[in-house]
Amino acid sequence: MLTGLSAVGALPASDPVRGVDEMSVEQRRVFLRGTLADWREDTSEKRGHEAPPIQKPYPPDAKRIDLVSPAKFTVGGMRVIDAIRDRRSRRDYSGEAFSLEELSYLLWATQGISRLDQDEHGKVVTQFRMVPSGGARHPFETYLVINRVAGVAPGLYRYLPLEHQLLVIREEGGLSKRVTGSCYGQSFAGNSAVTFVWAAIPYRTEWHYGCIAQKLISIEIGHVCQNLYLAAETIRGGVCAVSGYNQARLDALFGLDGKDEFVVYLAAAGKVNEAPHP
């Protein structure tokens, strides 16, 4: 059976959680390999537990901002071969703001929904997005630190893929120092036009895949960030991914519990002065 996971996917309070630094190299490598339990029957799904929601709920009166519909995009016309060729990690950003359309495009390219399949009661049974995910589980929530987007106040936001909207968490300026400090002094992370922060809700994947969920989550966040890199290249944007950050500080910035939802990756994005590929 799946040890360590309760019906809702959390570790029981009585179970000690060992830090990675306490594990041997062999133990740390375990999740990278396949296992005989890859397709085991004992998962929350097989036990009849309801699937977790595909998007975090939010208060009905929460402030939201409509994004530009993908059907109306006028950006992103660069050839894929040129975007792949030109892709670099770029840390030097101009003071230019992203337009709302450009931000909409980057969010759609990373976590936008292309199709929803629903049952006769209107319940979503399958979702398809711009990136692949094992079992179409898509375990991530996209948070944003916005400094420079035309028409959008600086602050903290969350992307709502179902509505293709921004959810306002808090409008607040002067977040650069706080973000930089949370990334061990990497100033580009705080000085970008937008910093994308991806948090995982592991149970979305654990519900279906059980013991190999952590491997899948680690793979899939790379798909998301690479789409951001390539999409940014097509709008004279630059991206640099960040894996060095203070877990507790970033979780606290967005009000995450650090247990059932926590930051797993982030990337700074901004306009660059280099001309796009002809």
Descriptive report:
With 278 residues, the chain is α+β, with helices and mostly antiparallel strands. Helices cover 26% and strands 21% of the residues. It has one domain (20-271): 3-Layer(aba) Sandwich (NADH Oxidase), CATH 3.40.109.10. The radius of gyration is 19 Å and the shape is globular.
Reading the helices and strands in chain order gives HEHHEEEEEHHEHHEHE
How are strands sequenced across the largest beta sheet? 1-6-5-4-7-9-8
- The portion of residues forming beta strands comes to 15-25%
The chain-level mean pLDDT equals 90
| Largest sheet composition | 7 strands, antiparallel
Taking pLDDT < 50 over at least 5 consecutive residues as the criterion, the unreliable ranges are 1-15
What's the gyration radius in Å?
19 Å
State the secondary-structure class: alpha+beta
Note the overall shape: globular
- Which architecture would the CATH scheme give at its second level? 3-Layer(aba) Sandwich
List descriptors.
alpha+beta, 278 residues, NADH Oxidase, 21% strand, seven-stranded antiparallel sheet, two-stranded antiparallel sheet, 8 helices, disordered N terminus
Question: In short, what is this structure?
Answer:
By secondary structure, the chain is of the alpha+beta class. It has helices at 25-29, 80-86, 100-111, 176-182, 187-191, 203-209, 213-233, 247-253, and strands at 64-66, 113-118, 124-129, 140-146, 155-160, 165-171, 194-200, 237-242, 262-271.
